[in-house]
Amino acid sequence: MTHHYHSTTFRVMRSFTLHGQILCYHEEPHPEQITNPSKPRARLNLAKTETIAEMHSKHKQGLPTDHLLTINIYDPVIRNKRKWEMCCISKEEQVMWYNAIRASDGPVGDAGVAGSPTHDHHEGTSLQFPNVDSGNNLFSVNRKMIHRSPSMEQQEDVLLTRAAEKAVEVWMEKENSGNNKKEMSTSTMVLLFVTMNVALYYVRNGSEQTFQATLFFMNAFVLYVVMERTGTKSTSKQTKGKGLKAKIAKKKKKVMETDEINAPAIEIEKLHQKIMPGSTMPRSAPVKNTELETKLQNCGANSAEALRAYAEAPTESIQVQPHSYVQTDSSLFNLRIGPNYKRNKQKAPSAPALYDLYSMDFLYDSAALKNVSDKFKIPSIPGITDVSTGHAHIPPMLVINTWLPGEEPSVFAKNTDGDTYSIPMVFVLSKDTLEQLKDIDTASPGVKLLSEWCRRAESEPDFKGRFKCMGQIEDIESTSIPKFIHGYNGKPALVTKSGTFTRHENYIEFTINVNYWAFLARKGLHSLMPYFQDFIFNVGFTIEARHDEEMPEVLLGGCRIMNLDPDKAAVDV
Q1: Apex CA 4: angle with CA 7 and CA 6, to 5°?
Q2: Is it true that the peptide bond before 130 is cis, omega within 30 degrees of 0?
Q3: Pairing of strands 324-327, 334-336
Q4: Are 321 and 282 in contact (CB under 8 A)?
Q5: Does pTM surpass 0.90?
Q6: pLDDT surpassing 60 at residue 20
Q7: Among 97, 177, 423, 443, which residue has the least CB neighbours within 10 Å?
Q8: pLDDT given at position 248
Q9: DSSP of 122-191, one letter per residue?
Q10: What CA–CA distance (Å, rounded) separates 11 from 534?
Q11: Do residues 175 and 230 lie in contact, with contact meaning Cβ atoms separated by under 8 Å?
């Protein structure tokens, strides 16, 4: 990604931490305010990244102190560099940070451009700082200032040429990958030819703006080729979903046979009968001898008591079972807080979600599930789904139905129908939210924003487009997920044109059609599907707050999905 920079550089207060060789900077301006050290805003592994640390003593306009330290980070893909900059309180502190980071500096090639890394660890000046390297200390710097510096320091034609060169290099490696060889599609070859010619033309004749746009698309294409290459990584992963297609074909044949004029009416009724939510995907069981298990033994599985017990149970009281789900821990998601978010960019763990998760289902079919009520009975739970919220526009239930592409996405066209994974989730208003709705004037900003969204989203596309979804893979570093996806972990995405708001008698149904997303997003999600059974995935939803009076943001609801197996998606329902 490239950025435009102006004479007045935007800076915000951040705090830095260094533990071993992992350098992080956090949303919080003070180290003592860091609520979750394992979830920094950005993380840099000094042992695996080409870096050079530099101390500066000359005053730079706009910085709070003269003790500036820069960390030059070299990009091995397009052989370009970017910077992290921090201001230290004193000269002594600057020297300590310099020594600690300098110990892991990596080598660079000629002209200050990093060569391809050949070792997992780089040799550099071995200067140790005890508080940094000891395993039980977290070295922090108070009141640091960070800003992003221009990274376009090389000649434009050289930069684009190297990006194009890298794309071809990755492509050639893919074509010659031995047993994993896979033919390059015609569309990919055409895109390669067109992109490289456009890049070369604008390098010679284009303006600064057209150059920046070309650079962006060139980088996007490199990412696309890499994703194509990772698609051939594992033969067992490639076979995912093929069995589902056979099941769909069998189902269609059965429907055609039973729809014949002489077919028994009981068979037709059986094919089209509705099922209860949660029938296609099991909820994870409680850990033995816990308070949750005791509560569930004394009430029905789908009762109001069981629903609230699961919602209030800590994560450690629920088993991690393959291909199951449970309500997510809302504090895993860092959401916007005020004041003045546009300037301060502060986030903090979410308060408890406004909705409790009732069920999740996982289906695969030749077409998306347009309306959840077409296949599922809308739940009726005394004391939960029949309560009055006191506001006609806020029903007690929210159904979020996500459609994921079941076929390889096309770079040139958006397949808005066809084989699709449908993932409907049913949520009910939490006890706390119902209590707050009794007096909306004293309710929290999150509840007020929910009320506004329920009232305005149906008729105002811009307000409907404030709906955000977030996906977070737990312990992503230990998974087999391609490294280039790690940077997107936990990042929010606004659901604008791809979202559909439908009001029903006692619930709102919000559909997220991923087929309308940008190609790289569709391609990335489709590439991830075979890996879902290897990790735990938390998904969360919220309404974007844009003004101080709407903050802090709070999670609407979420789901913790454990080792989802695409081949177990329900077909015969």
Answers
A1: 10
A2: no
A3: unpaired
A4: yes
A5: no
A6: yes
A7: 177
A8: 61
A9: --------HHHHSTT--EEEEEEEE-PPP---S-HHHHHHHHHHHHHHHHHHHHT-GGG--PPPHHHHHH
A10: 39
A11: no
**Cβ–Cβ < 8 Å for 296, 306:** yes
Q: Which single residue is written with the structure tokens 């500096």?
A: 105
- pLDDT tens digits for 127-170? 333 333 333 333 344 333 433 333 333 344 444 444 444 444 44
> Would you tell me the crossing angle of helices 186-205 and 156-175 to the nearest 10 degrees?
170
Three-class DSSP category at 572: coil
The pLDDT, as a whole number, for residue 250 is: 60
Q: What is the pLDDT of residue 243?
A: 60
Instruction: Quickly count: other Cβ atoms within 10 Å of residue 327's Cβ.
Output: 25
Nearest in space to 558 (alpha carbons), one of 409, 422, 370, 425: 425
State the alpha helices, DSSP H only, in 231-264: 235-238, 242-258
Residue 184 has pLDDT above 70, yes or no: no
Concatenated DSSP letters of 475-516:
TGGGS---GGGGGGTT-EEE-STTEEEEE-SSEEEEEEEGGG
pLDDT score at 167: 45
State yes or no: pLDDT of 356 exceeds 60.
yes
Mean pLDDT of 547-561: 97
Beta-bridge mates of residue 195: none
Residue 335 has pLDDT above 90, yes or no: yes
Tokens 């149904």 locate to 509
Query: If 0-12 CB within 10 Å is exposed, 13-18 middle and 19+ buried, where does residue 401 land?
Result: buried
State pLDDT tens for residues 86-103.
888 888 888 888 888 877
Q: What is the pLDDT of residues 399-423, one digit of tens each?
A: 999 999 888 877 766 666 788 999 9
Distance CA 139, CA 209 (A): 42
Is residue 133 within 8 Å of 99, Cβ to Cβ? no
Determine contact, residues 296/302, Cβ cutoff 8 Å.
Answer: no
Please state, in angstroms and rounded to a whole number, the distance separating the CA atoms of residues 387 and 401: 23
Residue whose pair of structure tokens reads 């739940």 in the numeric block: 379
